[in-house]
Amino acid sequence: MANGPKYRVPFRRRREGKTNYHRRLKLVLSRRNRLIVRSSNKHTIVQVMASAVVGDKLLAQSHSTQLEKEFSWYYNTGNLPSAYLTGYLCGLRAKKAGIEDAILDVGILVHDNRMKAAFKGFIDAGVEVPHGEEWFSENSEDRIAGQHIADYAATLSKEDSKKYKKLFSATLKKKGDPTKIVDQFKKVKSEMEKKV
């Protein structure tokens, strides 16, 4: 390891690839609420934070596991439809809490499409966040609703039922039908509007 009077070890979260401190400083200095979107392989987390000297204050949040617990979502919580619904749920909660606008904080991008889906869900809930429409792809609506998953599941069930049962085993165990993910997506979205 390098040493000497001018060598400085980066902050731990920078070394781990979790925080870009230059970008974070600009967002905090804006004094606006931050919309934070984070995705892992299995989950999506969407939060609205207010920055303060003593630390960030959580104003509204949603986690993709809440889809299973509160809205009977039988599908994977690490895909595009669940990311969109997680963002939509957080947007509804933020709107209910009186939050009218926020600024996007994506951190270090890992799962780009899921982050965009969650962001789109948050915007569709009615909270104002500055962005450019060209950021979203043209056919994103079908993918966000899960049409690509339904098409793949339908094709796979006809061609290779063994692989179909293996890939969608968690969904089938919960008595869900992967070919009907679009209908369930619409149902959960309307249920959110009623409950929140």
TrEMBL record:
Function: This is one of the proteins that bind and probably mediate the attachment of the 5S RNA into the large ribosomal subunit, where it forms part of the central protuberance.
Quaternary structure annotation from Swiss-Prot or TrEMBL: Part of the 50S ribosomal subunit. Contacts the 5S and 23S rRNAs.
Cited InterPro entries: Rbsml_uL18_arch (IPR057267), Rbsml_uL18_euk_arch (IPR005485), Ribosomal_L18 (IPR057268)
Gene: rpl18
Record's keyword terms, sorted: Ribonucleoprotein, Ribosomal protein, RNA-binding, rRNA-binding
CDD domains membership: Ribosomal_L18_L5e
Protein name as annotated: Large ribosomal subunit protein uL18
Pfam families: Ribosomal_L5e
